[in-house]
Write a structure and sequence with these properties.
The structure is a homodimer. In chain A, strand 6, helix 2 and strand 7 form a beta-alpha-beta unit. In chain A, strands 1, 2, 3, 4, 5, 14, 15 and 16 form an eight-stranded mixed β-sheet that branches. An eight-stranded mixed β-sheet of chain A has the order 18-17-22-21-24-23-25-26. The first copy, chain A, has a five-stranded parallel β-sheet with strand order 6-7-8-9-10. The longest helix of chain A has about 40 residues. Chain A has 17 helices and 29 strands. By secondary structure, chain A is of the alpha/beta class. The two termini of chain A are about 35 Å apart. Chains A and B meet through helix 1, strand 3, helix 7, helix 8 and helix 9 of A and helix 1, strand 3, helix 7, helix 8 and helix 9 of B.
Amino acid sequence: MRRFDSCQARSPLMAGFFVYIGLLSEIVGGAVLINREGIRYRQELAAVAAHRRPADLVLTGGRVVDVFTRSVEEAAVAIYRSRIAAVGRGYEANRTVDLGGRFLVPGLIDGHVHLESSLVTPTEFARLVLPRGTTTVIVDPHEIANVLGLEGVKLFTEAGRTGPLDIFVMAPSSVPATALEISGARLTCGDIGLLLADDRVLGVGEMMNYPGVVASDEELMAIIAAAGSRPVDGHAPGLRGDQLCAYVGAGVRSDHEATDLAEAREKLARGMWLMIREGSTAKSLDELVTLAADPAGRRCLWVTDDRHPADLLHEGHIDHIIRRATSRGLDPLVAIELATINPATCFGLDDRGAIAPGRLADLVVVSDLQEFRVEETYRRGRPVSQLSWPDRAAGTGGARGSINVRWAGVTSLHLPAAGRLARVMEVVPGQIVTGMSLAAPKIIHGRVVPDTDRDLLKLAVVERHRSSGRVGLGLVRGFGLRHGAMASSVAHDSHNIIVVGCSEEDMAAAVEQIIELGGGQVVVANGRILAQLALPIAGLMSDLPAEEVSRQVEELERAAKSLGCLLPKPFMALSFLALPVIPRLKLTDGGLVDVESLSYIPLFVDT
Amino acid sequence: MRRFDSCQARSPLMAGFFVYIGLLSEIVGGAVLINREGIRYRQELAAVAAHRRPADLVLTGGRVVDVFTRSVEEAAVAIYRSRIAAVGRGYEANRTVDLGGRFLVPGLIDGHVHLESSLVTPTEFARLVLPRGTTTVIVDPHEIANVLGLEGVKLFTEAGRTGPLDIFVMAPSSVPATALEISGARLTCGDIGLLLADDRVLGVGEMMNYPGVVASDEELMAIIAAAGSRPVDGHAPGLRGDQLCAYVGAGVRSDHEATDLAEAREKLARGMWLMIREGSTAKSLDELVTLAADPAGRRCLWVTDDRHPADLLHEGHIDHIIRRATSRGLDPLVAIELATINPATCFGLDDRGAIAPGRLADLVVVSDLQEFRVEETYRRGRPVSQLSWPDRAAGTGGARGSINVRWAGVTSLHLPAAGRLARVMEVVPGQIVTGMSLAAPKIIHGRVVPDTDRDLLKLAVVERHRSSGRVGLGLVRGFGLRHGAMASSVAHDSHNIIVVGCSEEDMAAAVEQIIELGGGQVVVANGRILAQLALPIAGLMSDLPAEEVSRQVEELERAAKSLGCLLPKPFMALSFLALPVIPRLKLTDGGLVDVESLSYIPLFVDT
């Protein structure tokens, strides 16, 4: 039960302890780096640079992009082990690659991404993004932390330590989002302190409860203090003026939620690092791209926040953002800075982000800076095209078996009619906010049932972490299903099972199939499974290749459409209906939630 | 004798220990900051920003310079205790100051200065520079460390901790400069590790032995490793190409010695922070100022390196550099960035360098950005014009009594003629290098004596730290003295007593007077003291007001001139004649040194 206790660190003394833990991690982190690389390594790097010793690899004939002087230089790059020894001429090496006039760019960095949104494992994510030039990602494993707590975060820190991609982690700061639901775990300030002791954890992840920070909430302040001098990411859509000052003054120093120029400029002026977000859902590049060429551009970086598998496959990752930015007229050298030296500086990763002596040999080869089609990526001096990829599911064992439901069958979905007029969640197409309306639902034998003709479908959230048997029930309009049901174990932020349907039997079948799969997404009609995607890893991620995941996601969407669904991304819409921090009416396993008052509210207004 | 042992830290294991010590300091440093400021303080800052609590001070009616967006904003700045709570409007405070349309600029930072060159105490230095807008200086106490070791460095760390100016220290990395002289102390890698454990020590000071670093010298590499992830300053005049790559790859990441644009650009491209130096002697602003407006400008900062008391009094400090830069056509907003956010970023001082919530209320008021005449400085929210200045000599007690000479009188200066043709140091006016020539000195009774007619004066270096009785003797041309002698206990880098003269009796009298003063500079003729400046603090600094020091320096120069001296800054020329790392012929207490071979060389070629 400990994980469900509310945070104990209410005194400055306790907070001081977490600060200590945070600082302790600097030792561990620093020592690991220094032991691994070693004084001797630095000596050897200098020896290679001074031609006293051959390099391991020399890339000749390239045009080297220098992010410090915003210029391009014809030079060779000498690499020794995992680092760049020199940028110059005449280097001898065990191996030489002639780039034939192509450009050499520093490895790309995504400064903020919830990797779980890709629906694939960290290794599979690496297989997708490394060939596209991304060599470092800073993830906020907020989703898996809600399911598995510290164990879930560990999946990413371990992947970062041993996997092919440099994954760093920001300690998720808002787990769970509210007390109005059962999540798989709670991360206390103490847990965050423990996370900060890991050398793969750079700081504290987005402080989503920005009203709480502005209000000087003691627990939130203790979390910020635990970061010590390390970065604390923000999340403050629309926050401006005095409130913004309070948020920044409290210690939060970045934001990725700005969507208009004036807001973005104000956040920069108040000292925030501005993450320009261009992901699968939220897209701010078009609006904010002019900032990049501004003097303020040095405090801007590209981030994706969320990126779906199909988009990673067909569009790309940070390379895609650079292409979009240059197509909007941005100087490619500037676009590259926002993907390299700027995020490196923002996160104090002084060992990367530029092609310079002593830095990691994370490099990208492109023929045209404007087009930015990555032809080869070097990660720590080795071409990723020659990498032998580790097992896609490596390290995910501990994240399986996360679906723990006490399921009583279709009766769990029975909803007694406690009144006549009920509150209905109104889906707003393409948005994650909902509206609220009132309607008299269809009632049969004293029970509320779906009413397909009026698009008044039934919605249920089935608690799936602790076998509590809790089921929240409500009504939703906007899906437009004419038959069947669809269900998902991806349901922000607690990721209980959410199911919507025209028939209680199909809804029950959908829930049962998700239990059977150990997590996933399904579309069911007349008791038959029309499409499904297994997400056995924390109920959030697949162990299949991205191509297969992408295909199954398409099938799910096609199946939903075949049942009459009107929404373009029905599973995304579904996944946000359980998030009680986004207005206006939401459903958790505990019941209907009024977001404004952050409290439960009865389904019937005339109860 | 321990301090004279050579560095023991030759194994990676030992180096690891120093790394540990370095990292330990992160705890101490961080904890001090966090304890002092506290979680509650952050809560209160947010409360002030959100208008829940009055500010201590509000500066209204000002035009706030924003170094992030390179713009000026009409806004009020709300200050709570030592920090900025908000930039906005409508703040209530216990005290309000109307700036009447004047500009508010972040406090200025000098990123690299040897404070000893000002000849005054840290407190007196603070009195000079704070009203000129400097609120933070990063000192490399290389001079006092050569005299007093860790105790000497402590004088600056303590001044930084308790004094009116924010003084940070870079641990001097090259003490002593060579083994060819007796210095007052040696700083081993272990000592540097200990220094790094002090929260006032930011990193490792300039690695002057750049050939040693390029050559992968193990002791130097251990010193760099001791810094861990913290800054290591460089010093590499003219270093370019492969050698520069080796120096940077070894871990050195700044330079203040670049004097031409191509060299500066190359250093920037290799990832170095470029310190543009404009001090009392070395001046590179005119040559390098165009870099500031370049994209590379974000990696540039102004530094003074050395600043004499008269220049501080009459010209200024960083304010003077900003004036010079704008007079050369640089946008004042850019000139300000190189004095504020850039050095703050360079040294990881994220709590300053900008006017933004949560940062220190170090602020400067000017009426005109181009003119940049500082009208008021706020340090941590308090106007420095209202500061009650601490005792000028506070904390300097331990640095007195540093002159320990075993002095046998004028016979110490007797130089037997061991041959006919002697090597002569040739002073090059305005430079610190010397030439070498051969001459047949005047010999009387088998002893070499000064020969005023041929300007072949006698030069002596008297060991003054350990009463060893060692005296080095040589011949110098270029001073042009016709009578008397001049002596100084400021003699780079070991700061033994150096004396030049036309008469052995006057030379002896000058040395005796310096012993009497406990350190200083004197001009003597016919046994009479014509001018003098006592430097009782480590033999390097006065405890007098800067105005008085400046006056006495002028008198010394006038007195030297009255004796026929041809050099404009004779004491500066004198002070570099004992520095055996600057070509070509130098004199230490051990004798004549050939700088090229870094070894002793006989005075007579025909011995």
